[in-house]
Amino acid sequence: MEFSSFALDERLQRAVRTAGYTETTPVQEEAIPLGLAGHDIVGTAQTGTGKTAAFVLPLLQTLLTHPGRRGKTRALIVTPTRELAEQVNAAIKQLARYTKIKSATVYGGVGFEPQERALRRGAEIIVACPGRLLDHMRRGNADLSAIEVLILDEADRMLDMGFLPPVREIVSKTPAGRQTMLFSATFAPELGQLAREILRDPQRVEMGLSAPASTIEHTILPVASEHKTALLLRLLEDTQTRSVLIFTRTKHRADRVAAQV
User: Which residues have a Cβ under 8 Å from the Cβ of 103 and sit 6 or more positions away?
Assistant: First the structure.
């Protein structure tokens, strides 16, 4: 499918052509029309599938089509890392190059002042990591009351990094009538619960998924955190195998498990 077939503002079409984009990727072909129609979206897509343009183009079209209050942040994209925030912001600047839409990044590890100025002057799009954005909200620098589009990118990584409570707090400060898109490479039960909480009748877009190998037996054993080690030791005792590969969430946890087994 060609980008020219979408009902995009001519300024966006020009930016698409300048960027050298001609045909859409599968996730773009499915997600862009849904986004342009104003639907909430739950997207499951791996990195490298073109999902950034899949949500940036509908977001920009919304801002161009429905002028909002001047000096207000109208769109918020939440990402797990500063690297991803910069990548997303670069895509926004590329696709918004022929418009007057301004964007800014908000993340830790750098000074507060430039971010505070961008927030107070009302950059229309903010690309932020949860922790630093919450810091600004608590300092009174960030006003999310005019958010029209909210996007959670790589939500599974935010879950892994413990950002789910901050994300819930951030979402609670945005208007209920916003359009929301959640993108993730995987879809854990916790993300399903979050999606049910914050999205309205979302459309599903699934791309780049791979099924588990049919030659491997998969078993899930729900267990309280304090019993994980005991269960692991019992499984190792009862498993007839010459080698075992154990994954943990953190380096500290890996060291603890290694010391006990």
Answer: 89, 92, 93, 96, 123, 124, 125, 126, 127
The CA distance from 160 to 103, in Å, is 27
The domain locations on the chain are 3-206, 225-260
**Nearest CA to 130 among 147, 155, 110?**
155
**Helices marked H in the chain — which ranges?**
10-18, 26-36, 51-65, 82-95, 113-120, 130-138, 155-160, 164-172, 189-198, 228-238, 251-260
Class of 3-206 in CATH: alpha beta
Cα 147 from chain centroid (whole Å): 16
pLDDT in tens, 162-205: 999 999 999 999 999 999 999 998 888 888 999 999 999 999 99
Q: Considering just the CA atoms, what is the radius of gyration of the chain in Å? A: 21
